[in-house]
Amino acid sequence: MIKKFTFGKPFNTFSCVLSVAECAEEIPFGTVETTAPAKSENSFAYTCALKPEDIVFGLGESVRGINKRGFKYVSNCSDVPNQSEDCESLYGAHNFIVISGEKTFGLYFDYPARIEFDIGFTQEDTLTVRADTADIALYVITPDKSAHVLDDIVTQFRTLVGRSYIAPFWAFGYQQSRWGYRTEDDIRSVVKKYRESNIPLDAVYLDIDYMDNFKDFTVSEEKFPAFKSFVSEMKTQHVRLVPIIDAGVKVEKGYSVCDEGEAKGFFCKKEDGSYFTGGVWPGNSRFPDFLNEDARAWFGAQYKKLIDLGIEGFWNDMNEPALFYSTESLADSFKKMESFKGKNLDIQSFFEFADISRSSFNKASDYRLFFHQIKNDDGSVTKVRHDKVHNLFGYNMTRAAAEAFDKITPGKRMLLFSRASFIGAHRYGGIWTGDNGSRWDHLLMGIKMMPSLNMCGFLYTGTDIGGFGGNTSRDLLLRWLAFGDFTPLMRNHSAAGTREQECWRFDHPEDFASVVGLRYRLIPYLYSEFMKAALNNTMYFRPLSFEYEDDKRARSVEDELLVGNDLLIAPVHEQNAVGRMVYLPQDMTLVRYHGNAVTEQTPLAKGDHYVSVPLEDVVFFVKKGHSVPLCKKNASCTEAIDYSSFDVVGDAPKGTAITLYHDDGFATDVSLEKGTIAIKQ
Ligand code: GLC
User: Fold this and answer.
1) CB 541 within 8 A of CB 526
2) Helix segments in 130-200, DSSP class H
């Protein structure tokens, strides 16, 4: 059951699609204190007690464990190039949590600005959710069923916020990206090497360098003299190109997107009505007012320029929005720097001086300098200061693109994912988890984030495989790919200046061919489970405790995940490990994949096992009595996946019908009824 409690005048975030009547009862489980709106800080506080055995799940994209207890998290979409375990905020703002214990219930705080979740950080036994203004819609969700209550709460929540985005089938293939591909030839050679090494590939990404001087919706003629024919040349090789689009639009006279946006008044303005200018990749940039529906439609229509050249997918970036500086903060930095001129820079002043140039980076005060023009139903416009709706910016950039795609390519699925997000954005696109590093702990962080993201509706998601920042190593990349085999978005991406990390660059590319090849053999299962999760409002990745709710051990397992209905994965995430301990919450079959083949199927009993996992192997587990189909042939791209015959792993009695969701992979009109097929073993 979902109960809604409203405080003040909540801003309509459009995160919910169901309308729930206001509840007149007392708030169950916790208490809310609000203070006069005039008070500028912590006007809203929700508090509830936590018992020692309670687990708190949720918060989507956030650091630390699957169980969020013991830390303070802040929903405040942030550009965090150096993610670490103590980052309170990442790129997304996902205000949904579930408290699981003697009493199990979900809480969704529908609120568009900064909001803090102190989950037993200040006081071990207390959960406090604080916001600056008391204009919040709070949804409290209790189970309708007596079993699988966590799944039930999530499904109710996901029904409230609407069906998750569904990517085209090709986007379930392996994808290669790098901030550093500059020319057609760079890309041709990447594709050629993948094909020569027999490592499957479905897409290559175009990072900011494809543009003409970092201008959105332009293509550098110098680097891509015949872009349209290059896009189709790649398609004949079954590779799609996926360009990046940034939130900031370069300020430049004669650049149509800038000129038009300015003429129409579609960029964010300051208090005095002049345009706000912030620095991102192109230098001085304007920020489209994505919260204004006309500006959204206008920006969305720009994607047509690239779609007309054959593009079928995009990634939206820098849309927290990231701000390296504003005109104002830059002026302030220069002024401060001046004040140090001629002075003896001692221990104190030197470090103050050194920090100045970075002090303008994503500065909180800059987000208070510009405004959105929100159109009301009666046509009037309300001016809202950006910081009050900050977490909706990236979400509405995704919405701008998705709403435009419906018009530009009606009936056809497009690939779309974003860096910044809010709940609601999950209906329009996926997300990737942003700028991680080539570090073992970031592999683990990605594993833990997946179920929390699924709870919040983000199903089409994945991490930068191999790590974005820093230099990856062969072992880290192989282990990361073995996890990435199971993430709907399977993309290897890295930053400019780091070690190149395309799979074929490392010794024994045949090991990579096997690990990535497994993905393609599993795609019929993975795609089917993804579609079921999207169409049933369920989770694709689940913590063990969601299914084995009476199993105390399962409640504390943080580095194993259930994938769909039949599989369990326990990725190796430690350097030098040649295996790991795995807890099985029920009897399962261990499946080992090595050298492009299933080499072992061993039944294991419920309990703890040490499982050896050499670097070139992938091991996963199938529940007893279940079977999972694997395509018979190795495919080099999703188009080559053969649904006509399968091998199966697992121990379902021979002849048991296996049903899969399968469709043309493109149509937006999808349903379980239309897509269910029975397959031959
Ligand atoms: C941001 C993105 C990253 C991209 C880079 C350059 O850091 O998160 O993925 O490669 O910008 O566009």
Assistant:
1) no
2) 149-161, 184-196
Alpha-carbon gap, residue 292 to 381, rounded angstroms: 9
The answer to whether residues 186 and 176 touch, using CB atoms and an 8 Å cutoff, is no
Residue 192 lies in a domain: no
434 lines ligand 1 (CB under 6 A): yes
Q: Is the CB of 651 under 6 A from ligand 1?
A: no
- CATH number of the domain to which 17 belongs: 2.60.40.1760
Pocket test for ligand 1, best of 90, 244, 285 (most atoms within 8 A of CB): 244
Q: What pLDDT does 656 receive?
A: 86
Closest ligand 1 atom number to CA of residue 315: 9
Q: 269-293: per-residue pLDDT in tens?
A: 999 999 999 999 999 999 999 999 9
Name the residue range of residue 632's domain: 538-680
Residue 598: helix, strand or coil by DSSP?
strand
Domains held by the chain: number: 2
The owner of tokens 């007392």 is: 26
Q: Is the CB of 79 under 6 A from ligand 1?
A: no
In a domain, 299, yes or no: no
Pocket test for ligand 1, best of 78, 91, 175, 207 (most atoms within 8 A of CB): 207
Among 132, 161, 190, the domain boundary falls at: 161
> Which domain CATH number covers 609?
2.60.40.4040
Contact by Cβ (8 Å): 405, 311: no
Mean pLDDT value across the chain: 96
pLDDT tens, residue by residue, 668-681: 999 999 888 888 66
Q: Residue 40's pLDDT is what?
A: 55
Please identify, among 161, 195, 223, the residue that sits at the C-terminal boundary of a domain: 161
Nearest to 551 by CA among 148, 9, 111: 148
Angle CA 582–583–589, to nearest 5? 80
